[in-house]
Specification:
By secondary structure, this protein is of the alpha+beta class. Helix content is 33%, strand content 18%. It has a single domain, classed as HIT-like (HIT family, subunit A). It is globular and about 50 Å long. The protein starts with 5 loop residues before the first helix and ends with a helix.
Length: 142
């Protein structure tokens, strides 16, 4: 056990976890502090802290596995849907990229996102944010 990252230790099989899936690039296991029973965490085997660090060659396979696990969780638990989430640094309790796959049912008590919604002050403020993001996307694509 290297002790530096619990998810790396789980991927290396140095730490026990409730494994539900694994392949050459990823590993999935039950969250030890689930929002609901069946809450699964999917991690790349290699250590990447955030989605922004994940190599492009792994993004497709990770999201294909997310789809597989979401279907499996819904079917196995007779859930009406799933909540899929990734935290990048803020609220990321383990600094190793992980995708939350949480079974959902209507009126299960989970209220959308876990924080209060904030509105734009007006349409001009909304447009300024939209424009800034669009410009940044264009810069990053070049």
């Amino acid at each position: 056990m290297n002790g530096a990252c619990i998810f790396c230790d789980i991927a290396a099989r140095a730490v026990e976890a409730g494994l539900v899936y694994e392949d050459a690039d990823s590993i999935a296991f039950l969250d030890t502090h689930p929002l609901f029973p069946g809450h699964v965490l999917l991690c790349p085997r290699e250590h990447y802290v955030t989605l922004l660090e994940l190599p492009t060659r792994l993004t497709g396979p990770m999201f294909a596995t997310t789809q597989l696990l979401a279907r499996a969780v819904e079917n196995a638990l007779d859930a009406e849907g799933t909540f899929i989430a990734i935290n990048n640094r803020v609220s990321q309790t383990v600094p190793h990229l992980h995708i939350h796959i949480v079974p959902r049912r209507r009126r299960d008590g989970l209220k959308g996102f876990f924080w209060p919604r904030q509105h734009y002050t007006d349409d001009a403020a909304r447009e300024a944010v939209r424009d800034a993001i669009e410009r940044e996307v264009q810069k990053l694509k070049t």
